[in-house]
Amino acid sequence: MSSRLSALVIWAAVAASLAYWGLRWLAQPIAVPANALSVSMDSGSKGDFRRLLSGPAAASPQAIDAGAQSALAGRIQLQGAFASGDASGFSGVALLSVDGQPPRAVRVGQAVDGAMVLQRVDAGGAQIGPADGPTALTLALPSLPAPATGSLPPPTGVSTAMAPALPGASPSAQAAESDRGDNRTDD
Questions:
Q1: What are phi and psi of 92, to 5 degrees?
Q2: Model pTM?
Q3: 3-state secondary structure of 41
Q4: Residues 81-96: pLDDT tens digits?
C-alpha cells in the first residue's frame, strides 16, 4: 500500500511541474510600454574625457595693469585651498569662485580667468597672476567663524527631589518597616 501512495505522490509532483512550466511557456509576454525608449551606445558622449577632467587649457601670458588688478580682486573669491609641499616647490588646488559662479577646483598652473593662472597655493591662501609674470593678486583664506557657545536649558518635567530608597515605598512606610524590624526577637 505504501508503494502505491508514494507512486501517487511522485506522479502528482510530475503533473504539477508539467502544468506549471506548460502555463509559463504558453503565457503571453508582457507588452513594452508605449513610452519606453530604446538605449544604444551610439548616443553616448563622444568627447575627450581627459580634457573634460583636466579643466580649461592654460592661456597665453599677457601684461595686466593696476585697474585690471583691482577689478580682478573684486571678481575672484577664494573658498578653500589644499597645498602640498614637495621637492620641486609648492603645488596644490584652490577652490575659486569667479563672478559669483559656483566654486571650482583649480590646480596650480591652470587658468583662472583669461590670461590669469593660479601661481601658488599655500596654507594661508593663493596667488594669481600671469603664467610667466609677477603675482597680480594674493587671496587669503576666509577665517572660520567663532564657535557657538552657550548653555542648555534645564530639562523640563524632571523632578529634582530625592527619590525614596526603596522603589514603590514612601519614606514613612520605610521608617515603619525599619521600626518593626528592630522590635523583633529571634527565638
A1: 170, -170
A2: 0.41
A3: helix
A4: 888 766 555 678 888 8
Residue extents of the structural domains in the chain: 76-140
Which is it for the CA torsion 118, 140, 113, 101, positive or negative? Answer: positive
DSSP one-letter string for 117-131: EEEEEETTEEEEEET
The x, y and z cell numbers of residue 139, run together, are 587671496
d(CA 83, CA 94): 8
Q: Which residues contact 115 (CB under 8 A, 6 or more apart)?
A: 59, 60, 61, 62, 64, 130, 131
CA distance 18 to 5: 20
C-alpha cell at 35: 513610452
Burial class (CB in 10 A: 0-12, 13-18, 19+), 106: buried
Question: Pick from 106, 112, 72, 74: which is nearest to 91 by CA?
Answer: 106
Helices (H), the chain: 2-26, 49-54, 66-75, 171-183
Q: Which three cell numbers stand for residue 185?
A: 526577637
Which regions of the chain are under pLDDT 70?
40-70, 85-90, 158-187
As a whole number of angstroms, the distance between CA 53 and CA 111 comes to 14
